[in-house]
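Friendly challenge for the regulars: who can give me the structure tokens for this chain first? No prize, just bragging rights.
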Amino acid sequence: DLLKTCQVWEQLLSIAPRDILALKLHHTMAFYTGRSQVLLSVIRGVWASWDRSVPGYSVVQGMYAYALEECGNYDEAERTGREATMANPEDLWAIHAVSHVLDMQGRYEEGVKWLDYSAEDWSDRNPFKAHLWWHAAIFHLSLDDVDKAISIHDELLRSINTPSYVDVSNQSSLLKRVEIRGINVGERWQLLADHARTRTKDHILTFRDVHFCLAMAAAGQLDEARDFIKSMEEFSDVNHNWTAKVTKSTLIPLCKGIVAYEANEYAAACDILWPLRNDLAPVGGSHTQRDLFRQILEDAASKCERTNISRHLLSERILQRPNDVNYRRLYEALQ
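First reply, four minutes later:
Bragging rights claimed.
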């Protein structure tokens, strides 16, 4: 029960605010439950017990920077994140926090430069480096450099895969964004779908489950994806913890919308995803990661000529990303 676990960590941190392991574990699980305000509240609650004289201070700064970014405090997030990376240039999470600011503010060229790290640069880093390369690929996609985004997938993201660990979330999220741009990614889905089929009884993280479902559906394994949704229904019927409740309320309809989209049932996908679009935070992940599901809705609306939905979503995009000329061009084409 992730929610109850987070509450225990919060109780511990109220007693021992410098317990950096409890803080990091809480930060990770609050992230995977999509509770941005909780991320920020807990870091602020321990902040007065930390300063530069305490070992690990820059790690706390990196977590604080990410929490600030997810709550929309971009200037403070960037300042704090850059301070953390200056203190410890090896801190992937602090680098990650600044990357999110650059993405949310549409500063894509800066993002490319910020994440210019090769496989050799990070040869000794843990698999989280794949997520930073994912961000680099997203920056390149936003600059219309699709070839570079695909090369990052092929040369960096897939290299993270091992017999026991396949990076489904980052890879499927990137591949789908490329496909939405009309690019055929070939057989790249197959490995992800094959691995996802081995994990359909886990139901540990809703964030993982939605990407497993996406991988199977995008690979054309629609029956397997539907069976996976049935497994989610069974799980949510017999369990009563936070994950089961979110699976029932949010994950299952989201996955049904994704499967409808991959089955070319675009009107049905719109009908499912449109009312759900602003309530996806419990699935977990960041604003940037969950934006994929809005992109799927946008593409479905375009393909079934739901012009009213397309116009509404693009209007939001223009306000959020005023520097992105692509969204303005698409919006003007609808007038």
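The mean pLDDT is 95. Residues 222 and 263 are 7 Å apart (CA to CA). Your move, everyone else.
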